[in-house]
Amino acid sequence: MAVHNVHERLLPTDESKLGALIDTLASGDHDQLWPGHDWSPMEFDRPLSPGATGGHWPVGYTVTGYIPGRWIRFEFTRPRGFHGFHELAVLPAGPGHARIHHTLTMTTKGLARLTWPLAFRPMHDACMEDAFDRAEHACTGTVARPARWSPYVRLLHTLAAHATRKRSANQRPESPATRPR
């Protein structure tokens, strides 16, 4: 199945301020974009650069392209059946405005043909809107219309958190880039 999923938000800020947020991805406490307080943290085996591997449990990827402050592309390495990429870009939108744009383009195979629409897509959509709320807050100091999780996303999130805790308790420690949380 072919998947093309797009999220974007227009913000009253300049491109450089918005673009700087991309550069903070996976920087732990300094990450101003990834909503790690509600989602598993984004971690890589090295600083953002082509070839860096990691992700956020249970999704893994490799950085395949990066222009600091402008654009980053990740190619999926897991879960099984996800073949493609997702990317974040900062786009000009006129004087005093910029747009943060996320594109996910992939094909799904096997079980992923079911898990994408039933679980991963709703979770992905909620996570991206949470990230864009963080971007808006970092750039403007407020969020005009905060994203809200649907009851279904809350259920999926609870189930995923339970599975993550169970998996963590039954596993030996892994590298920071692959450790589930």
Model description:
This protein is of the alpha+beta class. The protein has a single domain (2-169), classed as Alpha-D-Glucose-1,6-Bisphosphate, Chain A, domain 4 (2-Layer Sandwich). 31% of the residues lie in helices and 30% in strands. The chain has three helices and seven strands. The protein has helices at 15-22, 112-140, 151-169; strands at 2-11, 43-44, 53-56, 59-67, 71-78, 82-92, 98-108. A seven-stranded antiparallel sheet has the order 1-7-6-5-4-3-2. A hairpin with an 8-residue loop joins strand 2 and strand 3. The two termini are 29 Å apart. 25% of the residues are buried. Mean pLDDT is 91; it is low at 172-181. This is SRPBCC family protein.
State the gist of this model:
This protein is α+β, with helices and mostly antiparallel strands and 181 residues long. It is 31% helix and 30% strand.
What is the topology?
Layout: E1 2-11, H1 15-22, E2 43-44, E3 53-56, E4 59-67, E5 71-78, E6 82-92, E7 98-108, H2 112-140, H3 151-169
Antiparallel strand pairs: 1-7, 2-3, 3-4, 4-5, 5-6, 6-7
Helix pairs in contact: 2-3
Task: Determine and state the CATH class.
Answer: Alpha Beta
Please give the alpha-carbon distance between the first and last residues.
29 Å
What is the CATH superfamily label? START domain
What kind of oligomer do you see?
single chain
Shape descriptor reads globular
- The sequence of SSEs as H and E is EHEEEEEEHH
Number of domains: 1
